[in-house]
Specification:
- The structure holds 2 protein chains of 2 kinds.
- Chain A has 2 domains: 1-33; 34-106, no CATH class.
- Helices cover 76% and strands 0% of the residues of chain A.
- Chain A has 5 helices and no strands.
- The two termini of chain A are 32 Å apart.
- Chain B is mainly alpha-helical.
- Chain B has 2 domains: 2-156, no CATH class; 172-219.
- Chain B has 12 helices and no strands.
- The chains are: A mainly alpha, B mainly alpha.
- Chains A and B meet through helix 1, helix 2, helix 3, helix 4 and helix 5 of A and helix 2, helix 3, helix 4, helix 5 and helix 6 of B.
Chain lengths: 107, 219
């Protein structure tokens, strides 16, 4: 259960911070230039952060299937990653991943 | 025009929004708390991460720093959009900034050559933003309402990492991006046990530092 005041404080700070980030350059509208290297560095941000969410949620989740050493989530992650690489459908990989996880853990 | 242009890519937003709504429900937030955060922050990946951290009572600094690091990419979009909005009113500038998302920016950017004036570009962009916002909020509400009824055996919690896979893979443009992603994955495992959920933050900073080395080395 998330404490109400703790939640509101976090939301308030996220609103201020996110709007500042989104509006920073729009507010100064072209009066400031960013270097090409900094611009390129920004493009690495998803690759730098998203695996740090995906990997622990996969590896540190308690598995349920002894035959695959309790790491069925890892196998499903790899499979859905390969499928997404070719199909590029968020809906499909979420459905496929959850469907497979359900089948593997229930049967 | 912008509204129609973004329609083909919103199919990916619906499950992501449903995951967000479901995460709000899983975190035992009230409907109004969920809507407050969803309408005021309006940043899916950062919201997912911060809600997850809040459920674990992470320090406020960790929650905010994590969310804002995820949102740092909006700096680039903001910089790229600034020439187009420089002669717009403060209200339009505010709306453009507030509604900035990956999908809206990408759609606007892909159609940039079609605009003969800045005003046309801004109108197009606001059309994409309106479509994105409506889709996002509707899918989050649906996820909140129906996600709560899903049994644990459906493992809906795993939809979050799966949706992040869908966000990650298109950004891996070449081996350098893959190297940064692999570095981040390894560091996240090594640093997982750090207190106050600092593993995520430290991993992100180290991975961005690693990316900076790659960018600096490139001639």
């Amino acid at each position: 259960m998330i404490n109400g005041n703790y939640f509101l404080l976090n939301v308030f700070l996220m609103v201020v911070g996110t709007l500042t980030i989104r509006g920073s350059f729009i507010a100064v509208s072209g009066k400031m230039k960013i270097s090409d290297k900094t611009r390129e560095l920004f493009t690495y941000i998803p690759a730098a952060i998203l695996p740090a969410f995906i990997v622990p949620a996969t590896f540190f989740h308690q598995g349920q299937i002894a035959e695959v050493f309790g790491k069925e989530r890892f196998l499903i992650l790899v499979l859905t990653g390969i499928v997404f690489y070719f199909v590029r459908s968020t809906l499909l990989i979420i459905g496929l991943g959850l469907g497979l996880l359900y089948l593997v853990t229930q049967f | 025009m912008g509204f129609r242009a973004v329609l083909p890519i919103i199919s990916g937003i619906i499950p992501f929004g449903a995951v967000m709504g479901s995460a709000f429900g899983e975190a035992k937030l009230s409907f109004w708390q969920a809507m407050l955060m969803n309408t005021s922050v309006y940043a899916g990946a950062a919201q997912l991460a911060t809600v997850e951290l809040m459920t674990q009572n992470a320090a406020v600094f960790v929650v905010i720093a994590t969310g804002l690091i995820i949102n740092l990419r909006f700096l680039l979009y903001s910089a790229a959009m600034s020439p187009m909005v420089h002669d717009s009113s403060p209200l339009i500038k505010f709306l453009c900034a507030f509604s900035l998302t990956d999908q809206s920016y990408a759609t606007m950017s892909a159609n940039h050559d079609k605009f003969s004036t800045n005003k046309e570009g801004v109108s197009f962009y606001l059309g994409t933003a309106a479509c994105m916002m409506m889709t996002w909020h509707a899918s989050v509400i649906a996820g909140y309402v129906f996600g709560n009824f899903a049994p644990a055996s459906w493992s809906l919690d795993y939809a979050v990492p799966l949706s992040f896979v869908a966000l990650l893979i298109p950004t891996l443009k070449n081996k350098k991006y893959v190297a940064v992603a692999v570095f981040s994955a390894i560091m996240s495992l090594l640093l997982y046990q750090l207190p106050l959920r600092m593993g995520l933050m430290v991993t992100a900073l180290l991975a961005i530092g690693f990316a900076w080395l790659i960018v600096r080395r490139k001639k």
